[in-house]
Specification:
By secondary structure, the chain is α/β, with parallel strands linked by helices. 53% of the residues lie in helices and 17% in strands. It is built from nine helices and seven strands; from the N terminus they run ββαββαβααααβαβαα. The chain is elongated and about 80 Å long.
Amino acid sequence: MKKEKTEIKIVKIKECVPNSWNPNEMNARQFASLKKALTKYGQTKPIQVGVWPNMKVKDGYVIVGGFHTWKVLSELGEAEIEANIHNFKNEDEAKLYGLTDNIHGSNQQIKLGKLAYELTQNGYSIKEIASNLGEEDINVKDALDLVKDEIEKKMIELKKAERENTIVLNFIVDKDPEASADEFIKAVTAFAKAKGVKVEKAVKDINKQRETIALVSFNVTNPQKGVIDEALNVLSKETKMTESEAIAEVCSRFINTQNGNIQKQDTTK
C-alpha cells in the first residue's frame, strides 16, 4: 500500500468515531491494564484516524487504529486526544490500513477472513490483500476459507427471510358490503404503499349471508409481516378489538390523516 500523507494534531474525542470493522480485540484484563497505564502516564502515542471522499461520518474522523486508547480516554472524561490523520482514497484502503496496524494481535483469523471476504466482493484479489497486509497469500486464503461457508450460509438464510407471504384480511361489515369492500381496498392499498409494502392484488369475496369481505394478497416479506403482526397485537390488547377490527382501525386512522392533509392543502391553495 502506498504511504499516504499524514498529519498529527490534537482533535476532540467526540469527533472520532469507531469503525465497523476493527479487527483488534482486547479482553477485560488487558483493557484494565491499558486504563491503568493511561491514567498514570497519559497518552504516549497518537491514535490512527482517517478521512476519505464520501464517507458516512461528517465533520469527523474514523478510527482505524488505537480504538481502545480512545475508549479509555473517553471513559476518563478527556475532551481531546492526539491523532495521526490519514487521507485515504476510499474505505477499502482505510480497512487495509487498519488490518495492517492490528492484524498481528491474537485471535484475528476470523475477522481477517470476514474482511478478506468483503474485499474480494469489492474486486480485490487474495494476492492484492496479502500484499497490502504483508502476509503470505496462503494465510489470507486460510482465513477466508475459515469464514466463507458461514457467511454464505447466513446470506441464504437472509434471502429466505425476505420471501413473500400472502396475508388474508377478513372484515365483517354491517351493510353494503360491495361499497365497503371498495373502500377498504382503497384504504389498505394507500396504507400499505405509505409503509413500503406493495399490494399485488385485492380480491373481493363477499358472502352476502355473513356480510364478510375478504381482501386477499397483502404480499409482504417476513420482516414486514412481523412488524404488522406486532402492531395489530398491541392494538388488539389495548382496545380489546379482534384482529380484523384492529386492521380496519389502523386503515381508518390512516385515511382520516390523509384526508386531513388533503383538506389542509386545499385551504392553502
